[in-house]
Amino acid sequence: MMLPVANRFVAGEGPAEALEHVRQLNDRNVKAIVNLLGEHYDDREAADADAREYRELVEDIARSDLDATVSVKPSQIGLDLGEDVFRENLEGIVETAADRGVFVWIDMEDHTTTDATLDAYEEFARKHWSGERARSSSDRWTDGGVGVCVQANLKRTRRDVERLADVPGKVRFVKGAYDEPAEIAYKGKDAVNREYEALLEYAFEQFDGGIAIGSHDPAMIDRAIELHEEHGTDFEIQMLMGVRNDAQFELAEEYEVYQYVPYGDRWMSYFYRRAMERKENLWFAVRAVLGR
Ligand code: FAD
Fold first, then answer.
1. To test ligand 1's pocket by mutation, which of 216, 246, 274 has the most ligand atoms within 8 angstroms of CB?
2. Which of 28, 91, 117, 190 has the most CB atoms around its CB within 10 Å?
3. Which residue blocks in 207-266 are alpha helix, DSSP H?
């Protein structure tokens, strides 16, 4: 059973609780990115089971008429077992989602997975948008589709973003959650922030939409708004459940805001990461446990 204190960052153990949380977000104009917690499976059954749950989740979202997308981790659907396993499972999810008009995000994991993730994204995004569904440019951003995450802390990302500029999908820009080797990564907050801003400048100039700001950083969000005003390029803001919730609702009065909503019985390690990453979160957890 999930500890009540984890409710701030995790919607619940099952899809019904996650979708109930989404309904409450939608009532306040915030859309959702639903994520089933899980990663690094080295057993095919576990990878296939999560892929199956994602397909069912997509069906539930479509049936419930909620404003929600899903986000999946490559290693959760088999990348550690082989690129073929990952692609087969991803294809099943993307095809089901395409039929139901639900958008699929692919999270980005550590640098050893970048090529496989971007290659799969590019193939599925082109395939998905190359047919009937790409009826008009506005449909491209709402009616199903695929998106991928890129990480500003990796030096290769600038080149990757140039490659992605003409792929008909969405790109989520994040600073990067993995501790990468210094030869391939920018180290230190300032260097990563500079690169993040440079990537946004490139994207707002060169992309024709589909930019997602996956950050809680007020400075980066303000910069994205400035760039949007300068270039007119569409964008959305994405934040995690339980992080700057008030800001999410305020921003949603003017901009498109998505909340990343994790759920599932593997909530403990995710909750631990959130609690440990900032002292405010840790104090919140301690106070909740002490009942104050
Ligand atoms: P930071 O650089 O951590 O902080 C900058 C400023 O933001 C702080 O000074 C503060 O003002 C504000 N802030 C940040 N956190 C808080 C908080 N808890 N409470 C109050 N203020 C805060 N990483 C990946 O590697 N792969 C992914 O697929 C991925 N997907 C993501 C999806 C979403 C929707 C989001 C939001 C993040 C994702 N990340 C992913 C994580 C990301 O890479 C960063 O590790 C994480 O977002 C922290 O960076 P930041 O830009 O939010 O702000």
1. 216
2. 117
3. 218-231, 245-251
